[in-house]
C-alpha cells in the first residue's frame, strides 16, 4: 500500500472512531450522574474541555460543545456537581475553573464568566495552604495542581501574592542535601504505604518541578524558584544511569528508597522501564528540555538528547510486543504518543517523530479495540480524558493539529 493510500485509510479510521465517541458521549449526556461528575481528568468537565479543544480542527462540533458547557454550568450552579464539593485540580474547583479560564483565554467565553473567580481563588489558595501543611504536594490530587490553576488565573490581582506564599510553604517541605532537592507527598504515602521519594509527573517530583518551572517562566519568584528547580534537577541527575540499547532499564528511578544504593535500586526494580504519561523517563526528559530553555543551560538538553534518542529507538519496537493493553492517556498508548509528538515539536529530532508515528498508529489500533470491548467500556472512567477514550482521541487530534497541541495540552503539563 502506498503512503497516500495508508494515510487515507488512517484518516478514515480516525473519522470512524471520532464518530463512535461522539455517539457514546451523546448517549451518556442524558444521564444526570454523568453530567454531575465535574472531574476535569475523568469526568464531564473533561468532556467539555475535549469538545472545545477540537473545535479549530472540527468546527461542526461547536453547538454540542456549548450545549455540554451549559449542562455542566447548570449542574454546578445547582450544587449538584462533584466539582463544587472538592478543590483539587483533578476533580474539584481548581479543575472546573481551569476549564472556564481556558475557554475565556481561547475566546469561547466572555470574561464575565470569571466575575466570581476572585473569592473562589481565595478558597483554593487557603485550601492549598492546608494541603501543604499536610505535605500533600501531589499534582493530580494536591497542592501543586492547585498552584497550576492559580497560575492560569492571570486576571486575579492576587495571583503573584498567592503563589509567592505557596512557594514559601512548599519550599519549607523540601529535603535538601548533597544530592539535591526533593519533596515528600503524603498522598503517595497514604495510598502506596511508602516513604519512598516519588519521581513521577502525576504524583511526584517531576510534576512538582514542571509546575514550578511554569511559575518561574511567568516571572514569579524567579530567584527563589530558579535555585530550587536546579537543586531538584540535581537530585534527578544524582541517580542518572545512562540508557543502553536493548537493556530494559530507565535512566531515572520511578521511586527512590534513600536507604538503598543505586545498585540496590536497580536490582529492586526501581529503575523498571516504564513508558507512560504518569511515570517514567518521558516526563523527566521533557523536564530537562524545558529547563534547558528556561535557564539557558544546554547541558540539560544534552542529557535529554542522550536519554531520549535511546528511549525513542526502544519505544519504536514496543507496540508490537503488546506491552500496552489499552489506548488511554495516563498509562496507555495515547499518553506516550502525545509525549513523543511534543518532544519532536520541541526538538525537531527525527527519531521522536518516527517513534510518535508508531505510537499514534498503535493508539488508533487500541482505541478501535477499546471501543468494542465491554470490559473496557463498562469502567466508570471509560469516556474520560485521563483513563478513557476521549483522552485517546484528544491525543490523536493534538498530534495532527498544532492549535490543540499548543493551546490545550497544558492541563497535562505538555505545553
From TrEMBL:
GO terms for cellular component: plasma membrane. InterPro entries: LANC-like. The keyword Metal-binding applies. GO terms for molecular function: metal ion binding. Zn(2+) binds at residues 278, 330-331. Pfam families: LANC_like (PF05147). The keyword Protease does not apply. Keywords: Metal-binding, Zinc. SUPFAM superfamilies: LanC-like. GO terms for biological process: peptide modification. PANTHER family: LANC-LIKE PROTEIN (PTHR12736), LANC-LIKE PROTEIN 3 (PTHR12736:SF7). This is Lanthionine synthetase C-like protein. It comes from Pedobacter psychrodurus.
Amino acid at each position: 500500500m502506498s503512503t497516500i493510500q495508508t494515510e487515507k485509510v488512517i484518516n478514515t479510521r480516525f473519522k470512524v472512531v471520532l464518530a463512535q465517541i461522539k455517539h457514546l458521549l451523546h448517549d451518556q449526556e442524558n444521564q444526570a450522574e454523568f453530567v454531575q461528575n465535574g472531574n476535569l481528568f475523568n469526568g464531564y468537565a473533561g468532556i467539555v474541555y475535549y469538545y472545545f479543544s477540537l473545535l479549530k480542527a472540527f468546527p461542526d462540533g461547536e453547538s454540542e460543545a456549548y450545549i455540554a458547557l451549559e449542562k455542566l454550568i447548570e449542574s454546578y450552579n445547582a450544587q449538584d456537581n462533584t466539582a463544587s464539593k472538592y478543590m483539587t485540580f483533578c476533580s474539584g474547583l481548581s479543575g472546573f475553573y481551569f476549564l472556564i479560564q481556558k475557554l475565556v483565554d481561547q475566546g469561547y467565553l466572555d470574561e464575565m464568566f470569571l466575575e466570581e473567580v476572585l473569592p473562589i481563588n481565595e478558597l483554593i489558595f487557603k485550601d492549598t495552604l492546608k494541603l501543604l501543611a499536610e505535605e500533600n504536594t501531589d499534582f493530580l490530587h494536591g497542592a501543586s495542581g492547585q498552584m497550576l490553576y492559580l497560575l492560569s488565573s492571570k486576571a486575579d490581582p492576587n495571583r503573584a501574592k498567592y503563589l509567592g506564599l505557596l512557594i514559601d510553604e512548599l519550599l519549607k517541605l523540601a529535603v535538601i542535601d548533597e544530592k539535591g532537592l526533593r519533596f515528600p507527598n503524603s498522598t503517595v504515602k497514604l495510598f502506596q504505604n511508602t516513604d519512598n521519594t516519588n519521581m513521577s509527573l502525576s504524583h511526584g517530583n517531576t510534576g512538582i518541578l514542571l509546575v514550578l518551572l511554569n511559575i518561574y517562566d511567568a516571572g514569579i519568584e524567579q530567584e527563589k524558584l530558579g535555585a530550587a528547580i536546579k537543586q531538584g534537577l540535581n537530585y534527578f541527575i544524582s541517580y542518572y544511569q545512562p540508557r543502553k540499547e536493548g537493556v530494559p532499564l530507565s535512566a531515572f528511578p520511578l521511586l527512590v528508597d534513600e536507604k538503598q544504593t543505586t545498585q540496590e535500586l536497580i536490582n529492586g526494580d526501581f529503575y523498571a522501564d516504564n513508558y507512560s504519561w504518569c511515570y517514567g523517563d518521558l516526563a523527566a526528559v521533557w523536564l530537562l528540555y524545558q529547563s534547558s530553555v528556561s535557564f539557558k543551560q544546554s547541558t540539560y538538553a544534552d542529557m535529554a538528547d542522550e536519554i531520549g534518542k535511546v528511549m525513542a529507538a526502544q519505544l519504536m519496537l514496543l507496540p508490537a510486543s503488546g506491552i500496552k493493553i489499552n489506548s488511554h492517556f495516563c498509562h496507555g498508548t495515547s499518553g506516550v504518543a502525545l509525549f513523543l509528538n511534543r518532544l519532536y515539536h520541541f526538538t525537531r529530532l527525527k527519531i521522536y517523530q518516527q517513534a510518535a508515528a508508531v505510537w499514534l498508529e498503535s493508539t488508533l489500533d487500541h482505541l478501535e479495540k477499546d471501543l468494542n470491548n465491554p470490559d473496557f467500556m463498562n469502567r466508570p472512567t471509560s469516556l474520560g480524558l485521563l483513563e478513557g477514550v476521549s483522552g485517546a482521541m484528544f491525543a490523536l487530534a493534538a498530534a495532527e493539529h498544532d492549535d490543540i497541541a499548543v493551546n490545550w495540552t497544558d492541563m497535562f503539563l505538555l505545553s
